[in-house]
Design goal:
Shape: globular
Number of domains: 2
Helix content: 40-55%
Strand order of the largest sheet: 1-2
Largest sheet: 2 strands, antiparallel
Structural class: mainly alpha
Radius of gyration: 20 Å
Length: 249
């Protein structure tokens, strides 16, 4: 009977909440200490996640949700969920040494109970050891800023967004990201808005609106899809900022 009620509950959720996202439990083995633990994996979601308010920070589900950053409860190895299962062998010793210095304020049974920003701070150092490019870090600091904001830590949220902003500017002058200027300018606008520079944000949105997104590594249909999405989002963002400015008087 309990199982039937549980199934009916899920059906009810998915039927009456078109914006539902769901997770299911799955066991993963830490690649550093080999400890097995139960985590959560994505079960279902829809395109509606791209219309949630976090779009104005260019941050999207599942990275807005607590289960998305895994943390081993034994050794504290922490990464995004999709990077957790394996690490290069030549990084294990360095990671082990770093993790031995990580001390949490208490023991947690469930990784989700560890504050998201605590997990992201550990992950930041893990990824520095693993090595990542500017695009990764630009996104990482947007995600970090989002979660500092969720935890009402405005000062650290601003610090993370300034880092993301600096990295976006580096990307803008890097030929590796040629053709992606529309997206990068949008990121610069978003970070300016969230550090209180609304006029600058509008200037960058205007610049982005004149461009077409290009990416030779992607299929043409995906490139066109992102370009259309950015075009619409830029229009929405301009209205969003102007309304904020009006409300502020």
């Amino acid at each position: 009977m309990k199982r039937i009620n549980s199934i009916l509950g899920v059906i009810f959720l998915l039927t009456f909440n078109v914006n539902a996202t769901t997770w299911f439990p799955a066991e993963h083995t830490c690649p550093i200490c080999k400890h097995k633990h139960e985590y959560k994996e994505i079960e279902s979601y829809g395109g509606y996640i791209y219309n949630w308010p976090s779009k104005y920070q260019y941050v999207y589900w599942p990275l807005t949700d607590l289960p998305s950053v895994y943390c081993c409860p034994k050794c504290n190895f922490t990464t995004y969920m999709w990077d957790f299962d394996s690490v290069p062998e030549n990084r294990v010793d360095t990671l082990t040494k770093f993790l031995s210095t990580v001390k949490l304020e208490k023991k947690y049974k469930d990784y989700i109970d560890i504050p998201m920003t605590t997990r992201l701070e550990i992950a930041e150092n893990v990824y520095k050891i693993l090595g990542r490019d500017n695009e990764f870090w630009c996104k990482f600091y947007r995600v970090q800023g989002y979660h500092y904001d969720q935890e009402k830590n405005k000062e650290k949220a601003k610090e993370s967004r300034l880092k993301s902003l600096d990295l976006a500017r580096l990307m803008l002058s890097d030929s590796v990201y040629s053709g992606q200027e529309k997206e990068i300018l949008f990121i610069i606008a978003a970070m300016n808005n969230f550090i209180g520079q609304k006029d600058s944000a509008l200037i960058y949105l205007d610049k982005a609106s004149l461009l077409t997104y290009e990416n030779k590594k992607w299929k043409e249909e995906n490139v066109k899809g992102l370009d259309r999405y950015l075009t619409d989002l830029i229009k929405q963002y301009k209205e969003f900022i102007r309304k904020e400015k009006e409300d502020e008087g």
